[in-house]
Amino acid sequence: MHSLLSAVGTRSIRLVVAGFFLLPTLLSAAWGQEKFATYPLLPSGYSSIRVFDNKGRFAGRILPDRRYWVSIDRIPAFLQQAVVAVEDSRFYEHRGIDIQGIARALVKDVVKGRLAEGGSTITQQLIKNRYLSGEKSIERKLEEGRMALEFEKKYTKKQILEMYFNEIYYGNGAWGIAQAARLYFDKNPEELTDAECALLAGVPKNPGRYNPLGKSSDVSRRRDVVLKRMADLKVISARQKQKLRSQRVTFTQPTQAPQYLAHVRSRLVERFGPQIIEQGGLDVTAAMDLNLQRQAEKTLREGVKKVSPQLQGALVSLDPATGDVLAAVGGVDSAKNGYDRAFLARRQPGSAIKPLIYAAALEKGFVASSLWNDTPVAYYSGNNQLWRPQNYGGEQFGEISLRRALAYSNNVIAVKLLEAIGVPYFVDFAAKVGLPLRPNNNLSLALGTDEVTLNELVQAYTPLATGGLRSEARMIVRIYDRNRRSWTENPPAVTPVLSPAAAFVTTQMLKDVMVYGTAKSLKRFSQQRPSAGKTGTTDDYRDAWFIGYTPQVITGIWVGYDKPRPGGRGFTGGAVAAPIWERLMRPALAGRPAVDFPKPDTVVSVSIDPATGYLATPACPEKRDEFYVAGTQPTEYCPRHGGEHPVTPPPVPAEPGGEGPKAGEAPDQ
User: Fold this and answer.
1) Which parts of the sequence are annotated with region: Disordered (predicted)?
2) Architecture field, domain 70-246
């Protein structure tokens, strides 16, 4: 030990003495020209924006981005005393460096054979935070000491302490006492209690470990160190120490739904401007169901990662009647990647677009029972080349009804149906339901080649669930201004865009998707809960979608890679997205009655022969009830089984058709 002290200790002490007592002239231009307060002063009376879910449960807070400066007179005297006691008890006596502290630290360093104890004063800690790196070396400590001596010539102790409180790190992204008081206690510094101050005074030693949201045993032990040190120095009495140790401190809980609150923040900025975040003082009632939001985050993450760890996903769940966004998840790992794939990412929807084409066709007089042939046809594209849309897997069904064509997600018939109603008509229709599409994609629109966001697509489905009313996504229900004591309501934005009859018939067709169609894995769910939906899979299996709904909840799922690439055969909406949908919808509907979609008076139901589309006769071997928009139902009996005067079926486009697509095919399963 003596040899170690001789070799290491003597050298270290000589360096310290040389550095501290043979000080060169320090050129402190960096701080000579700086303003004393490097951030805007914290406004008096500030309080954060608090967000509650639709049942009044606390969901989190929205805090300002900017850092604020707090003057020393707004920092509790108890907090100042606690920090000085535990960090630098000789702060008011030394001139920037504490020789006794340095000597004590050097002995410990020599004993441990490394730089374990810094012996830093509050001034040195401030210097390190403001100007230097976290490097541990004798040379760095010398530089820190020289700068501390010069710093104390320029500033008073009060000013140095004020700078310290505004520059020190308190963990969880909180720099300075203003952010720390707001983050952990939702207070301004001057509002902190002595017990809260005792906790915060212990944080700078190790912000990651001792911050109030850390492990409770570690936080309590560090607080006890602070209180013991204060008692030892006679700053507080033994009785005060025991009283403060026994006081229970309540922390503000961290945000429970950060992805959703990011949307609320954006809506507030859109409505009131960016200054509203800095002003604060609001209580926001969100449309979110906090339990469902947490379940959505978990379900999406686990469901996507089960397919592949590299995949991403998004989820939007709405109340179709009001547009209330019950849950929204923009990715499987928001803590690492905050990009919002639910509201911002634009991807091809594949066959998830088809229900809108069928709804538009019903509005134009087409019927679900009409028979169409899926014999492939060729269309001339813009570069004078032929485009031949194919069904998924290249299969052909021959002559089938529009009902079955939608359930099987038949590509060829979808293209023919779009040609029959006209691309301009469909683009106008899509715009009414809130889906902006580009007409220059021509007939390939039937296969979902234009790009949309998940949020847009889910909103476009709301008229199908509500009897023709489009509900705009709503994330904020009402706002209470605590300063003005006034409420601002945000009523639902609901617009009629589709006839109730066409909406109902389309929904009845989409029920088959979940019974025998591309999402038949959901058959059991659909038997328990009347529901409808549609899968979507884009070209080369790049995107998997499922949009499904009941009368009470509509949920959309997207799964894919951020940088689009094939997911491999079998990467389809039915196989990948639909199971995630079911795992969320079960808890989403728990406790709600299983209700069916109400049939409007403008819909009639008749018994038909599905093989011909005509009214069924007693001789028809197969019969089924089919729904029609009133006035479009068949009026003649099946000619194949004893009926007369057949009705001419809807026209089928000639082969080949008009101008083809400018984008590629997007097959689906």
Assistant:
1) 635-669
2) Orthogonal Bundle (1.10)
Integer CA distances (angstroms), 639 to 571, 609, 615, 619, 648, in order: 44, 10, 9, 11, 12
For the segment(s) 351-449, the CATH number from 3.90.1150.10, 3.40.50.2300, 3.40.710.10, 3.40.50.150 is 3.40.710.10
**What is the separation, in whole angstroms, between the first and last Cα of the chain?**
77
What are the angstrom distances between the C-alpha of 294 and each of 339, 545, 656? 18, 21, 51
29-71 per-position pLDDT tens digit: 344 445 678 899 999 888 899 999 999 999 999 999 889 999 9
Just list the catalytic residues.
87, 351
Q: Which of 552, 548, 549, 554 is nearest to 578 (CA)?
A: 548
Amino acid, single-letter form, for residue 513: V
Amino acid letter for position 618: P
d(CA 350, CA 431): 18
Residue 579 host element (H or E): helix 578-589
From 3.40.50.1470, 3.40.710.10, 1.10.10.10, 3.40.50.300, which CATH number describes the 287-348+451-598 domain? 3.40.710.10
pLDDT for 78-127, tens place per residue? 999 999 999 999 999 998 888 776 666 555 554 555 544 456 899 999 98
Give the Cα separation of 486 and 40 in Å (integer).
Answer: 28
Conformational region of residue 408, where left means phi above 0, alpha means psi within -120 to 50, and beta covers everything else: alpha
Q: Break the chain down into helix, strand, coil percent, rounded to 5.
A: 45, 15, 40
In sequence order, the 6+-apart residues with CB closer than 8 A to the CB of 219 are 199, 202, 210, 211, 212
Q: Are strands 624-629 and 494-496 parallel, antiparallel or unpaired?
A: unpaired
pTM for the model: 0.85
What are the residue boundaries of the structural domains of the chain, listed by start? 70-246, 287-348+451-598, 351-449, 601-649
What's the average model confidence in pLDDT over 461-465? Answer: 98
Angle, in degrees to the nearest 10, between helices 500-511 and 354-363: 140
354: nearest Cα among 403, 424, 315: 403
